Amino acid sequence: MKISFIGAGRVATHLAHALYAQGFEIVQVYSRNLFHAQVLARTVHATSIDTLADIVATDLMVIAVSDQAIESVITQLATLVDDHTLIVHTSGSTAMQILTKHHLRAGVFYPLQTFSLEREVNWSNTPFLLEAQYDADLLRLNEMARTLSQQIYHYNSEQRLSLHLAAVFANNFSNYCFDIAKQTVERNAVDFNLLTALMKETAEKACQFDPKVVQTGPAMRQDQNTLDAHQSLLQQQQAEDHLAVYRLLSEHIKKRHQVK
C-alpha cells in the first residue's frame, strides 16, 4: 500500500515511522513548513512537499493535522484527488462526515494514545478506533491497523468523540495536575520525584478498579481542616490559578462522595 501523509507533527511522525517499519511505502509528506516535511520524509524515504497542488495519487492519504485544519485540507484535496484514493483523518473529536461531504472514499484511523516526540510509542498497547464510509475500506484500515496493534475497534463518530473527551480528562487534565504538583513542591524546594511512586500507583489502581471506589484524599473524607490548610498554603504561595483548580476539584469530589 502506498501512503501519503498530510502533516508532519507528532501523530504523523510516529505513525509514519511505525507503518514504514511494517513495510508500507510512504510516498509523500506534506507540511506548510517545508523543513518539517523534509525532516519526516527523510526518515521514511519519502518526498517532501509544502504545496498540496503537488500531491500525487496514492492508495491512502492520512490527514494528521490539527482538528481545526482538517476541513480546510479536505476541501483542497477534493479538487486534487479522485475517488481511487482513500482519505482518512487521525482525529478523535472530528466526525467522519467532515471528509465524506467532500470525498466519497473516506474514513478515520484514530490511535488512542498520547504522542510526544521525546518518547517512543508502544503500539501493541494502543487501541485503534476505525471508521469508514465503505466496508471494503474499513477492511483495508483494519488490516493496516493490525500490523501495529491487535486492539481494533469500530466505533462511530459520536462514540469516538465521547472517548476523546474521556481521554482529555484521563490524560490531559491529569497531566496538568501533575504539572501543578511539580510547581507546588518546587516552590518549597521539595523533590518532585518523591511523588513518582504515588503517581504510578494511582494510575495502576484506576486501571484495575472503579476510579470512584479507589478515590482517596481529604475531599473524599470531608476533611475540612486539611482542605483549609492546603488552600492557605496556596494563598501564601500566591498560586491563585492553582487554588481555583484545588477548590473546584475538591468540591466535586466532596459531592461525588457525600454521605446520603
Automatic annotation (TrEMBL):
Domain Pyrroline-5-carboxylate reductase catalytic N-terminal: 2-87
Domain DUF2520: 126-252
Pfam families, A to Z: DUF2520, F420_oxidored
MF GO annotations: oxidoreductase activity
Gene3D superfamilies: NAD(P)-binding Rossmann-like Domain (3.40.50.720), ProC-like, C-terminal domain (1.10.1040.20)
Keywords: Oxidoreductase
Keyword Thylakoid belongs to the record: no
UniProt KW rRNA processing keyword: no
Top-rank taxon: Bacteria
Protein name: Predicted oxidoreductase, contains short-chain dehydrogenase (SDR) and DUF2520 domains
Organism lineage string: Bacteria, Pseudomonadati, Pseudomonadota, Gammaproteobacteria, Moraxellales
